[in-house]
Design brief:
Blueprint lengths: L3 E8 L3 H12 L4 E5 L7 H4 L4 E3 L11 H12 L3 E3 L5 E4 L1 H14 L3 E4 L2 E8 L2 E7 L4 E11 L5 H5 L4 E3 L14 E4 L3 H6 L11 E5 L1 H9 L10 E7 L2 E8 L11 H25 L7 E5 L9 E3 L7 H5 L7 E5 L3 E4 L6 E4 L6 E4 L11 E3 L8 H7 L2 H21 L8 H10 L4
Parallel strand pairs: 1-2, 1-9, 2-6, 9-21
Antiparallel strand pairs: 3-5, 4-5, 7-8, 8-9, 10-16, 11-14, 11-15, 12-13, 13-14, 17-20, 18-19
Helix pairs in contact: 1-11, 11-12
Amino acid sequence: MKRKAYDVVVVGGGPAGVAAAVSAARHQCRTLLVERQGFCGGMGTAAGLSVFINYRDQGVDLSDSIYREIITALDAQTAHYRTPDGHCDVFEPEALKSILDQLLAETGVEVLYHAYPGEVVWEDSAWQLGCWGKSDRVSVQARCLIDATGDADVASMVGVETAVGRNGDQRTQPMTMIVRLGGFDRERYRASGGHLIPEGHAIEGSSRRDEISVARQCGEWTIPREDIAMFWTHPWDKTQVSINATRVLNADGSCLSDLSSAEAEGRRQAWELWRFFQKYVPGFEGAYLVSTGPQIGVRETRRIVGMNCLSEGEVLSCQTPSDSVCFCAYPIDIHDPEGKRDSFELSQSHRYGIPYGCLVPKEKDWILAAGRCISASHEAAGSFRVMPTCCSIGQAAGVAAALAVQRNLPPRLIQGEEVRAIISQSRLP
């Protein structure tokens, strides 16, 4: 069977995967992106989590050029707003899908939607992939693979050692079904003490504890959490609100049976959440349920064991090693696997670096990880898992893969300092 040959194949079309593919293509690599959905965007589109959490280091934006391009394109469609503190970029998922399609097309990335690698083997000095779709099998060849699945799916398939969840019991952060409501009355919300940002949008976080306590006592709240994590109005329609507040415990997002039961439980909780908002949150008395996420949101599953492993201590002490390929200032945000408490620890000066070795498996060659499945502790991953940072990690992976292919050197021999220097040259003001 004839195989179509590529320099770089990226599996997974979330922010990390798109950035990796675009970055590799811009550095003269023939690049293929394989995505199991019919669109890109990862949790931002597939789970309806339409907020990029982009924490800044004392006002300084740490995002890299591809993320900024995406935000600029969203702005051009009035499909984005930023909170006054600069920490949150709220966007329209449908606009993001279209923008990512255009970005990939403009950079010459070939895209294979509704496909997933069913087999991956190293043969004849290249990766041979069999990608399965609805009715056929597509065979492709890659000199370098980038696993941007979020779950280290491809890395695990080819024998890369992985770690799951926290140390000891391997339990992972809970999953969340994003819920979208319509019929929100902003004036009623504001009259009752709710805050609107200057653009007239409502965005609220870590709130409604008292109301939840009352609802629980009345048997109207069974969701295993103490507050509403966040809700936000949509750029194109201020009467529609998305809510992050459901919580599914004791489920592994890389396990098919767990994922299946979590989807059903997430939808059950969505209806409970709608009833709660109608009764307890002013402005939602006439609200109706518009949709749940196309799939449940997954925070954590497998991570590769890499040449370097980012630790909690390195995050909290704001280490910026010389081979850092990108930077993050988001706190360690752990949704407790047992639902007992959340951890939200701020680092001392906010910025820490992600070393290049965290993207490189400890033993396997010619494969890199990008996004939340890079090498790190459970605690450290609770910080960099946010989408803007994953986008920056992906951009770095794409540069590294291009350098490896062009020099015929395994990615482990590429220097993180050079990767960062190349990315810095492309930063937008």
